[in-house]
Amino acid sequence: MNIFKILQDIEKTDAEVYDRLSSRRKAMSSFGSMGKKVALAAVPLAMGSMFKKAYGQSTNSVLDVLNYALTLEYLEYNFYDQALKSSGLNLGANRDFFTEVRNNELAHVNFLKAAISGAGGTPVSEPTFDFSANNTFSDWNTNLQTFLALSQAFEDTGVRAYKGQATNLVSNSDVLTAALQIHSVEARHAAVVRRIRGLKGWITNDERGAGMPSQTQAVYDGEAQTTQAGINVPQISGISAAGVSESFDEPLDMATVNSIAGLFIKK
Fold first, then answer.
1. Contacting residues for 95 by C-beta, under 8 A, at least 6 apart
2. Interior CA angle at 255 toward 254 and 258, to 5°?
3. Please, what's the b/e burial string for 183-212 (b: 16 or more CB within 10 A of its CB; e: otherwise)?
4. How far is residue 37's CA from residue 73's CA, in Å, rounded to a whole number?
5. What pLDDT is stored for residue 71 in this prediction?
6. pLDDT tens readout for residues 137-181
7. Which pLDDT value is given to residue 38?
8. Which residues form the signal peptide (predicted)?
9. Would you list the DSSP string of 234-255?
10. Using a CB cutoff of 8 Å and minimum separation of 24, what contacts does 51-55 make?
C-alpha cells in the first residue's frame, strides 16, 4: 500500500477530489517535492491537511478508504512479524529478506495511522488475525514450506490486486505513472518469493505451483487467459497457450481480494 494507491482509491470514491484540491497535477507535484523540503515523518500530517482542505470536516469517505488500507497493512505486517518471532520457524538465509518485507509493512502501518490522525480521524483498531485460517494452515509458523506458500499467495494476490485498479487511473497520467512504477517493484517482490520456492518468477496458466495448498487456487484463477484486447495471441504468435499465459498477467477484482484476505481475519 502507498500514497498513490490511497489517492487512487479516494478518486474512485470521489471523482471530484482534484477539483476540491485545485488540480491533480498540483497535488501530485506537492507530494513529489515533499521529500526535498521536510522529513518523511511530516508527510502524513501534510496529507491530513490536504484532505481537510479538500473536504473540510466531511472526511468520512476518505477516512473509510484510509482505514480499509490500514486493515490490509495490519494483516501483511502481522503475517511477517509473527513468523519472524516464531521460535519454531527457521527462515535460514532468507531471514533478512523477510525482515525487510516486515519492516516495509510496519512503515506503511505507521504512515497510514499518522495520515488518518492528521485528517482528524481515528485509525481503525488492529484486527485479530488467524494465519492458520481456522486450522487450515495449522503449521504456518513452524513449517517453512507452509509459510512460504502463504507468502507466495499473499504476494501474488497483491500484484494482481494492484493491476485490477489500473483502469481507474487511465484519465490520470500523473498517478498512473507513479502507480506503474510502484507496481513493477511489487512484482519483483513476488518474483523473489516464487524463486525462493523453486518456481519460475511468473505464473503459468492458472497453476498454483508445486506445494501450494488447494485453498489458494482463488489467487490464480483467471491467469490462463490467452486472448488480449480481443486478439488470440497463440494464434498469431505460434507460442503455446502456456507460454502466452506467462507473457501476460491478469488483474484480480476487489471482491476476490477481500474474500482471500477475509480468511485470515477473526470475526
1. 84
2. 85
3. beebbebbbbbbebbebeeebbeebbbeeb
4. 27
5. 76
6. 999 999 999 999 999 998 888 778 767 655 654 544 543 454 465
7. 45
8. none
9. HHHH---HHHHHHH------HH
10. 51/118, 51/119, 52/119, 52/120, 53/20, 53/21, 54/17, 54/20, 54/21, 55/20
> Three-state SS for 126?
coil
Residue keyed to cell 488540480: 23
The string of pLDDT tens digits covering residues 107-128 is 778 877 877 787 688 998 998 9
CA distance 143 to 75: 20
Q: Which residues of the chain have pLDDT under 50?
A: 1, 34-42, 45, 54-61, 169, 171-172, 174-176, 178-179
Question: Which stretch of DSSP H or E encloses residue 231?
Answer: strand 231-232
Q: Take residue 167 and report the three cell numbers written for it.
A: 483502469
d(CA 118, CA 175): 22
3-state DSSP call for residue 227? strand
Cα distance between residue 179 and residue 174, in whole Å: 9
Closest CA to 216 of 167, 148, 162: 148
All cell numbers assigned to 80: 511477517
Q: Where are the domains of the chain?
A: 1-131, 143-222+231-258
139: DSSP letter: T
What helix, strand, coil percent values describe the chain, rounded to 5? 65, 0, 35
Residues in the chain: 267
Q: Residue 84: is it exposed, middle or buried by C-beta count within 10 angstroms (0-12/13-18/19+)?
A: middle
Name residue 250's amino acid: E
